[in-house]
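ERR on first pass: missing label on line 2. Operator R.T. fixed the label and resubmitted. Corrected input:
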Amino acid sequence: MSAPLLSIEALTLNPGGNPILHGLSVTLKVGGSLAILGANGAGKSSLLRAVMGLEQPEAGRVLLDGQDLVTTRARDRAALGIGFCPEGRRLFPGLTVEETLAVGFVGPTRQRRMRIDEMLDMFPALAGKRRDRAWSLSGGQQQMLAIARAIMNQPRLVLLDEPTLGLAPMIIDEVLDIIRTITATGTGVLLAEQNVGPALRVAEDVIVLVRGSSVHTGPARALSPSQAAKLMLSSG
Amino acid sequence: MGASIPQLLVNGVALGAAYALIALGFVLVINAVGVVMAGGFVAVTITEYLTPWANDNLPDLAFIGPRASAVGLGLVILPLTMVVMAVLGLLFSALAYAPLRHRPPVSVFISTIAVGLILQHGANAVFGPEPRVGPPLVVDGNFALGPITLSIQQLSVIFAAGCLITGTGLLLSRSQLGRQLRAVAQDPEMAEAIGISAGHCIAITFALAVALAGSAGMLLSNQFFVAPSDGGLFMLKAYIAVTVGGWGRLDGAAFAALLIGVFEVMMAAFVSYVMAEALLYAGVLLVLLVRPSGLLRETIQRRT
Amino acid sequence: MKAGSLRNVGIMAALLIAPVAFALSAGGYEQRIMTLAGIYAIAVLGYQLIFGRLGALSLAQGSFFGIGAYTTGLLGIHLDWAFPASFLASLIIPAAIACIIAIPVLRLESHYFALATLGISQIALLVGVNWTEGTGGANGLYGVPPLRILGTALDSSEAMLVVVWCVLASAVLAFSCLVKGRAAHRLTLLREAPEAAVTAGIDIGARRLSLFVASAAFGGAAGALQAHSIGVVSPAVLEFQVMVSILAMTVIGGRGHPAGAILGAVLLVHLPEWFRFLEAHYLVAYGAALLVAVIIMPEGLAGLFRRWLVTQERWAPEPPRTSKPEVPTTLAVLHLVGLCKRYGGVVALDNVSITVVPGEILGLIGPNGSGKSTLINVASGLQTLDAGEIRLGNLDLTGMPAHGRARVGLSRTFQTPVQALGLSPLESVLAACPAGLDERRAERHAAACLSAAGLTAPAVPTTSLSPAEARRLDLARALASGPAVLLLDEPAAGLTPAERDDLACCLKHLTDSGLGLLLVDHTMDFLLPLADRVICLATGSVVAEGPPSMVARDPAAIAAYFGEPPP
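pass 2 clean. output:
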């Protein structure tokens, strides 16, 4: 069995004095996809932020391909191959679609232009919107842009925080297709979601978080949406 | 001066162009870190010392060729001044901003004033308190366009300022660095998460802002006799331009600054300098009255 | 008198007497410097009202100083007015000017406010320098008569010193009266947690006006004394340098406490003397001192000694003896009709209509991004509506500012509890009590609100409250204004099951008196048993409405929430 892509060991997180994660351990294999289900406050976003390096854990380790990231800053983790699509998308409102994709890209101009064209092909919702500013896009388009931004540098691991937030069912299907395409290229996916049904349809494995601890792990197909919802929304 | 309207217009645009350079720097810092770089005006007054000093102490251009010595060192001094000012900008960033970046913006307002005081009076100590007139950018003299006589210096100021403003605009909108500066200004944490160094971008923004303000000082040094206390006046004009032009908008700030320059020169020629200033401030107050702003809008900005 | 207050008085007395004693023994030169320090301290005290307490960066304080100086000078030279008439005029005229310019200027956001005050100060300087017939122009006014009390001219340096510091002492007294008790708590709440303050009914505009006018009076008084002290009034008193000095003294001395005004003024007036060896370049040291102070002493010198300057009262109020509330709850129906709100391309609310009746608990559920928080923000007035109406009983709240809505009976809590760390829990709730209540009734009311919200240990400092207790404090504060309808934004998030049960009990109790609750939450175990009616929002629209059991089984709600297509 090959080494996991991402290994989170006994992670404890208390941002601002609030205990959010309690000794959580998670592994993700290379090319795997893991859905992290949980209600608000369960710790999903904090987990992803800790992996990205935006929160410092009290205890525990985050290992990418065996490398301990403890001293690595967020921007260096991005350089190591972690793509981040945060909750609420957090696009740069004044940047156009093209600029948003370009700004984080590492590589020569020619390559950048090609990669942007690739992205616009992969995300038909953004076709023809090259020069539109991010704030003027619809919710679904904004979500697509946020995901595209996260994969511009072809990362090894993509962190998606509630990508289906506030989207209509049809758009959600498009997002799921994109996620499947990403996993098909061998990129690892960590998907944090409240939206149980879509998450279980697209991920291979699932972990359910309640108040910072795991109450269930296993393959996604072995868990029904209503079971998952019950677990998530209960007192734990 | 008994000048004609086209001459006055040119003078006004030249003054306005210099104001626009300062205002641009202001807006860059406001957008990048949300603070008013109150002490930045010092860049204007320091270059007023630096420029004459450089003019006296750098070798002239005669070595390039016989025609070259007729041209002053202005074209050489301008980029040199900007480089020195950029370094000063990095100093501002390191001393006034970096230690206070987690504090409320008003602390940085004060710290920039403090750094401004240190630099201003340090410069006084080095150069002596009497500012002198600097060299023209290209040459002195006038240029006849039909019946109208225009000052070459003013025209060169307009041209140079125009190049700098356009250059800054292009830098921000077309270059990768510019995109990164804008991204950091809009969401520094997210910029870090996609691999951009927010700290470097902020330092560069300060350097650019102070370099622009310094260039304004250099361009004005031939025309205006600026005393150290006038630095505050420049800051105020820039602050007005930034506010009236739309808080945080580069194009608005530059345009408003131009208008202020033209207004000031025209008013001063037809009425009096004092009246010009008074009307300017009164006008600004009027604009502020009409603006529908309040506490709540600012609070919401912080939350979303 | 409480022990803490006695200590405060003792410290202030020492700070007022020691410098005078020192200067009196040191000779004429030192006396003149200390007189100047006292004068600046008065101006700084005034600045602390608007900048220190309220956090509004006014850049006009230097001008009020200058205007006061010119008023005294002109009245003294041309009209032979003497103390106290000219002094009073030097208080009133700056205050009147402040009042006139304040009304349009004070509602501005901070940077606009700073700019407006800066513009005003520049106009004052222009007038001072150029109105030669009136102010003597660039040369200024000469021969300002010395201060006269009861016919005796006080022109010796000792006399001026004592007079100035006596005026300073009265200024300190005036300051304490202006900013005491609940008024002080309201200002701290406004400064540290503006959203909580505004939604508790505190009118920032009115506060700024009164403090701005007061600060102008203090500045004018200082200027008047300056005019008498040196006998000359030049335009230099109107220059920006004066403002920078006052700002520096406020920051270095400490902006919250009168002790800071004295410490800052004494220190910074003496600084040029100490750096005299640098001659004209002492300003470099000045700038360096200011920079260092701002970086390492965010609360100034007074902040360093804060432990000895008691600011928080820590005593537990007695539980209310009667069950009759001090602030009776009115009953009113909340109508939210056709609310629409978008941000750029994203629709947050799409024609949403909701009604909350007295005594009802209305639950609002929906996935993240469905518009629930926006709804509360728009209803409480923290965000503007694009279209729609908000009515409470007979009142139309649609255009009303947030603080107005709180006063007529609409309160809210926050998803992340906002706290003013500088206030104890009791003080936080007191700050939210209606201003008209007298001290005793306000305290009883605050205690009642705290116990109604289930916070049993209000004597604990705010910084050590657990997240659950912080939510209780938020709730208590929301109750303090005596609301008819309360909007609760995820009150159960992050609570243990036991804490949730407590909260549910508490909320049920609140509705007994007729309070209507709009309850937004994700925890179904908590919300469904508690609510009388439930509404489900998704992508900005209402998709289901009815009794909890019905909505929980409604296919549209399930689809929206759980992302499954309806069967």
